[in-house]
Design goal:
The chain has a single domain, classed as HIT family, subunit A. Helices cover about 30% and strands about 20% of the residues. The relative contact order is 0.16. The protein is an alpha+beta fold and about 140 residues long.
């Protein structure tokens, strides 16, 4: 299943060029053409799904296996000190292409990048009651 208008689907099918670094029957990894650092790679399921929760479990497993397999190769290729792994899941989170994708962003000492907590803006004030209510809501939805 692919979406004919999706740029990631077009890269996977070869309809547009991409710098593919990983391919399996279910997952493709390619370099981000708007990188945050050298070696910034996107790992995507080959089937078109917009958000993580839309992925069948077996495809989610394959996606994270691809991330796991690629991570050391990417860090080695660019001599990175570490990596930040991220997913923007939905438009409100900053997801620009509505096709599930995991960012592997190589990091380097002194690169000026921030920890993942910098993504969310100002932290909310959360009370003990808030934590308990959220915990119960999550547990009740599983």
């Amino acid at each position: 299943m692919s979406d004919g208008d999706c740029v990631f689907c077009k890269i996977i099918t070869g309809d547009i060029p991409g710098y593919t670094v990983y391919e399996s029957s279910t997952v493709t990894g390619f370099l981000d053409v708007n990188p945050l650092s050298m070696g910034h790679t996107l790992v995507v399921p080959n089937e078109h799904h917009e958000q993580l929760q839309d992925l069948p479990t077996d495809q989610a497993t394959d996606l994270w296996r691809g991330v796991h397999d690629l991570l050391p190769a990417i860090e080695s290729a660019v001599d990175a000190d570490a990596s930040t792994i991220g997913v923007n899941n939905g438009e409100a989170s900053g997801q620009e292409i509505p096709h599930v994708h995991v960012h592997i962003v190589p990091r380097f000492y002194g690169d000026g990048g921030n920890p993942i907590h910098a993504v969310g803006g100002r932290s909310p004030t959360v009370t003990e009651d808030d934590f308990e209510t959220i915990q119960q809501g999550i547990e009740g939805s599983l």
